[in-house]
Design a protein that fits this description.
This protein has about 150 residues and is mainly β. It is about 10% helix and about 35% strand. It has a single domain (about 1-150), classed as OB fold (Dihydrolipoamide Acetyltransferase, E2P) (Beta Barrel), CATH 2.40.50.150. The strands form 4 sheets. A 6-stranded antiparallel β-sheet has the order 3-4-5-13-12-7, with no helix packed on it.
Length: about 150
């Protein structure tokens, strides 16, 4: 079984197919993103609440659990699985509640980027297709986000 690390997500499968996705034993183009322990010792979170954190502003197609809706058309650079984790306490800037309300957009962006990191999985280069299934599975007490993709021919 081949394992490739990208960001903090892991793609697991038996053989590589086009655009960096993996084809598993069921002949599906699949991406699995493991929920890991973050820098504070807590579990990362699959989520669509990625304001100020994600490398893109377009992710309305994600469900609450961070997975894309079935039928979503994908293209390179799109956010495929939303996942965040907390940074270590030493890396954090502090703003009190009043300062957060008065902060500019850039100050809020900096604030949240100092507290949280983007562990999301993005669609690889030269990859175009459609999401045909997306779900959370638990293997050995570890949650994995799984997205199955039908590639455009």
């Amino acid at each position: 079984m081949l394992s490739i690390n990208r960001n903090v997500c892991t793609v697991i499968a038996e053989e590589t197919v086009g655009c960096g996705l993996m084809r598993d034993a069921n002949n599906m183009n699949t991406i699995r993103c493991r929920r890991l322990v973050d820098e504070t010792g807590h579990m990362e979170e699959f989520t669509n609440d990625l304001s100020y954190i994600a490398k893109t502003e377009q992710y309305s197609y994600l469900l609450d659990n961070g997975l894309p809706k079935v039928g979503t058309k994908i293209s390179p650079g799109m956010l495929l699985i939303g996942k965040i984790g907390q940074k270590s306490i030493e890396a954090r800037d502090r703003l009190n509640e009043v300062q957060r309300y008065a902060a500019t957009e850039n100050e809020l962006n900096d604030y949240y980027n100092n507290w949280l990191y983007d562990g999301s999985e993005y669609v690889p280069e030269n990859c175009f297709g459609q999401v045909i299934n997306a779900y959370i599975e638990t293997v050995d007490n570890v949650e994995n986000a799984v997205v199955e993709i039908e590639l455009d021919r």
